Amino acid sequence: MLWNGRRVPFTLLGGYLGAGKTTIVNHVVGNAGGRRIVVLVNDVASVNIDAALIADHDGTTLSLTNGCVCCAIADDFARTLEQIREMPEAPDCVLMELSGVGEPARVAPWANTTGFRLDGIVVAADADQLAELCERPFVGDTIGEQLRAADLVMLTKSDIAADGGSAARRRIRAVSSAPILDVVDGVIDVDVLLGLSGPIAVVGEADRLQALPSLGGTRPDHHVTRLVELGSVTRDELSSIVDSLSTAVIRAKALVRCSDVEPLMEVHVVGTRRTVRPRPDLDRARAVQAMVVITVVE
User: Fold this and answer.
1) CA–CA separation, 173 vs 233, rounded Å?
2) Are strands 61-64 and 69-72 parallel, antiparallel or unpaired?
3) Beta pairing, strands 223-229 & 180-183
4) CATH number at residue 153
5) Average pLDDT of the chain?
6) 98-108, pLDDT tens digit by residue?
7) Is the pLDDT of residue 63 over 60?
8) What is the mean pLDDT of the segment spanning 77-86?
9) 3-class SS at 265?
C-alpha cells in the first residue's frame, strides 16, 4: 500500500514572471528544518543551493544532504509524480513552483491524485509592478486568474515599491479575499508556506506551549501564534469552529478527538482553504484538544 495510505501535502506556488517565486523556493530549501521536501521546479539550475548541501546532481534531480530533493518538472508531469510515488519513504511535503504564466487552478487537480492532497495554493505578487502589469492586455488576465485561485498571497518587493505596495494590495483585493503576507527577499517562515511542522504531541497541560511546533527563526513581527482550546467537540462543531476562523488566519493545524466519530480529525488551514478530514491511520492518543493558529496582523 502506497506509504501506508498517507497522502503527502502538496503546495502549489504560483505568480507572474519576476514575482520572486524562485527566491522563495531557495529560502525554503535552505531552511527546511528537518523536513524531507520534494521541490518541483522548471529548471533545477535556477535553485541556488550552497554547494556544501548538495549530495548528488544528475542534471534533472538535485539531492541534498538535508533530505530534500529538487526535481525539474518533466514534459510528462504524470511521470514526475509517479517518480515521487516510487520513493520508498513518503516525503513530508511537495512544493511545486509553477511557471510565470501557469494557472494554479489548472494544476490543482494533480495535487489531489493518488498519494497526495492539495495543501494550498500560494501566489507571489510583485508589489512594485503588479498594478502596471495588470493594465497590460493578456498579462492582466493571467495575473487575475492566478490571484483568484490563491489561498494565500505573498506580496513581494513592497520594500522597494514607491507606495509600499498600496496599489498592489488594491489590485489583489479586487479579485481575491485571500490573506496577504508581505515577504521581503524571499524570507518566509517555512511553517507558513508548507504547514506547521509535524504532528502536535503534548504530554501534559503544563508542557502544552513548549510542545508546540517550532515557529521561530524567520517570522516577522506581524505574525501572531496562539492556541485555540477546543475541549469536547463533535465533528460538526469542529468544522464550524474552523469555518468561523478570521480571514486574517493564514495557517492552522490540529489533531482532535471528536465525541461522535472514532477516527482522529485533522485540521489544516492555509489562507482561505480549510479542511477537516478523518485520520483513521493515526492513534487517538496523539490527539490534542487545541488548535495552533497563525494570524497575520497587517
Assistant:
1) 35
2) antiparallel
3) unpaired
4) 3.40.50.300
5) 84
6) 999 999 999 99
7) yes
8) 90
9) strand
